[in-house]
Amino acid sequence: MLTDSAVDGGSDYPEHVAAVLGSDAPPETVRDFYVWCDEFGVGTATVCLPDTVDRSPYTEAVADLEPSVRVVEEVGDADEGSRFLSYLGGRDELVGAFRLIAEDASEGRLGSDEVDAEAVEERLAVPGEPDLLIESGNALSDVLVWQTVYSELCHVDTLDRSSFVGCLEDYTERERRYGR
């Protein structure tokens, strides 16, 4: 059971939750994910869908949510916000970030000694590092490759409210080790 401190956004609670869903995920599930995140005080929420899905039903399903959901289809789409819907694969995202670094370097806006992890992070399509990554079904793919290196993982067969709460409960019982 989630503790009061977890529900109130206490220190054991994930600040950023990302969900990786397959192409068979109903648009309502994507919308519900953001609602659940709001309900449980999650500050930043990200949903990743395959780039092959018909995007319009998902984009329409979240169109009227507040805070608004930023749709990410290429590097540069999500520079700020707390809700993201990404159709971008991790390899494409990293290549895009590296291209932006190369452009900035060739145009003199970035010196070679300034190319570091922070420079890459500033150019990623989806900002931030999720504390918790929920993967649904067989949906794990190459999304958020850079951002999730230290994320806690939770696998569910189907993402619904019960499995979402279960992942939050599991997260609050873990000891974060950040690769140690």
**Number of β-strand runs:** 6
The order of strands across the largest sheet is: 3-4-2-1-5-6
What is the rounded Rg?
A: 17 Å
Low-pLDDT stretches = 3-7
Say what oligomer this is: single chain
Q: Helix content range of the residues, please?
A: 25-40%
Strand-pairing-aware structural class: alpha/beta
Total of helices: 6
List keywords for this structure.
180 residues; alpha/beta; six-stranded parallel sheet; 6 helices; globular
Structure in a nutshell:
The chain has 180 residues and is α/β, with parallel strands linked by helices. The chain is 33% helix and 15% strand. It has a domain at 15-89 and 125-153.
Plain-language structure description:
This protein has 180 residues and is an alpha/beta fold. The chain has a domain at 15-89 and 125-153. 33% of the residues lie in helices and 15% in strands. The protein has six helices and six strands. The protein has helices at residues 4-7, 27-39, 55-61, 90-106, 117-123, 161-172; strands at 16-20, 44-48, 70-72, 83-86, 132-136, 152-156. A six-stranded parallel sheet has the order 3-4-2-1-5-6, with helices on one face. It is globular, with a radius of gyration of 17 Å.
